[in-house]
């Protein structure tokens, strides 16, 4: 009887052992992958997501040291997201240069679309702009400013994340031809994470909200949205 890969418990144990060995004694392929932009984009988003989970969890639990346990994790997580978005832009730039075209140059957009879909081009630009706007929001957390000033960048950044995630979902045919692929699940995770961040930001911009409303309509969506981004990052690395 022919045994397909993954159908035998013995095969699974061997595969886990091989993965563990490859981690400590990497092959050339795994060693080189860990030095690619694609790998570090996922790692940076993963680190940003974990820091946002950390900050949101302490904000929900309540802490007397808001700056150290909430504001700083959000701020550093915002830096990780921003660097991840910059790395994504550099990766797209490399692809376009290899194809002989230049990134975001209007006269070259038609040529770019032959090597990279327009969904990917626009989503990359939106993620970069959104991450920059969101990082501004985390920076303003250190200062005493109005809620509108503090949360407007987060609202704009989250909207960029949502649109970028939806473009990824459309690009990977998640609605029309779902194949349970890693790329489709990453797209869905990004879209869900962006939507939850947008819910939190559009709620947070309103003044006069009670503590309970802030807890469940701002901190909780940030927590779940960050978990969604973390899942997408882990899938990308795997």
Q: What are the key terms here?
A:
single chain; 238 residues; mainly alpha; disordered N terminus
Description:
This protein has 238 residues and is mainly α. Helix content is 78%, strand content 0%. The protein has 9 helices and no strands. It has helices at 9-24, 28-33, 37-61, 66-98, 109-115, 118-140, 147-171, 182-204, 211-237. α6 runs antiparallel to α7 (147-171). The relative contact order is 0.11. Residues 1-17 and 98-103 have low confidence and may be disordered.
State the major sheet.
none
Number of strands: 0
Overall, the morphology is globular
Relative helix content: over 70%
- Following the backbone from N to C, one meets helices and strands in this order, namely HHHHHHHHH
The secondary structure category is: mainly alpha
Oligomer: single chain
End-to-end CA span: 30 Å
Q: Which value, in Å, is the CA radius of gyration?
A: 20 Å
Mean pLDDT rating: 83
Estimate the strand proportion: under 5%
Low-confidence regions: 1-17, 98-103
Number of helices: 9
Topology diagram in text:
Blueprint: H1 9-24, H2 28-33, H3 37-61, H4 66-98, H5 109-115, H6 118-140, H7 147-171, H8 182-204, H9 211-237
Give a quick precis of the structure:
The chain has 238 residues and is an all-alpha fold. It has helices spanning 9-24, 28-33, 37-61, 66-98, 109-115, 118-140, 147-171, 182-204, 211-237.
């Amino acid at each position: 009887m022919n045994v397909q890969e993954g159908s035998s418990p013995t095969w699974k144990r061997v595969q886990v052992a091989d993965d563990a060995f490859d981690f400590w004694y990497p092959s050339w392929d795994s060693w080189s992958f860990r030095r690619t932009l694609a790998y570090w984009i996922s790692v940076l988003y993963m680190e940003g997501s974990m820091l946002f989970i950390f900050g949101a969890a302490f904000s929900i639990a309540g802490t007397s040291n808001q700056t150290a346990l909430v504001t700083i994790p959000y701020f550093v997580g915002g830096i990780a997201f921003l660097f991840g978005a910059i790395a994504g832009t550099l990766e797209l730039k490399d692809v376009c240069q290899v194809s002989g075209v230049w990134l975001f140059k209007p006269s070259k957009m038609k040529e770019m679309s032959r090597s990279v879909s327009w969904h990917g081009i626009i989503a990359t630009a939106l993620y970069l702009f959104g991450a920059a706007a969101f990082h501004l929001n985390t920076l303003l957390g250190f200062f005493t400013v109005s809620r509108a000033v503090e949360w407007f960048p987060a609202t704009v950044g989250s909207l960029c994340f949502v649109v970028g995630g939806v473009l990824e979902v459309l690009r990977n045919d998640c609605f029309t031809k779902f194949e349970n692929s890693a790329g489709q699940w990453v797209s869905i995770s990004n879209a869900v994470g962006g939507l939850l961040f947008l819910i939190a930001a559009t709620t947070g911009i309103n003044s006069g909200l009670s503590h309970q409303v802030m807890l469940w309509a701002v901190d909780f969506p940030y927590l779940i949205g960050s978990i969604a981004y973390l899942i997408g990052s882990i899938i990308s690395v795997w």
